[in-house]
Amino acid sequence: MDRYKRLASNTIILAAGQFSSRFLVIIMMKFYTSMLNTDGYGTVGLIIDACVIIMTIVTLSINDSIIRFGLDSKYDKAQVFSIGLTTVLAGLLIFAFFTPALNLITVEYMADDQIQRKAVFEGYTVWIYFYVFTGSIKSCCALFARSAGYVKLYAVDGLFTTVMNITFNLVFMLGLGLGVKGYLLSVILADLCSTIFIFYMANLKNHVQLFGLSPHLRRSMYRFSLPLIPTAVMWWITGLSAGFFIAQFMDMDSAGIYKAAYRFPNIIIIISLIFSQAWNMSAITEKNSRTIARFYSNVFNIFQSAIFIMAAGLMLVIRPALALMTTSDFHEAYRFSALLIMAVIFSCFSTFTGSVYVASKKSMRSMTTAFIGAALNIALNFLLIPYWGLHGAALATFISYAVIFIVRAVDTRKIVLMDLKVFKMTVNSIILLLMGVIVMTVNNNFIYYAMLLGLFLFAVVINFKSALGAIDIIRKRKG
Question: How far does CA 127 lie from the centroid of its chain?
Answer without folding.
Answer: 22
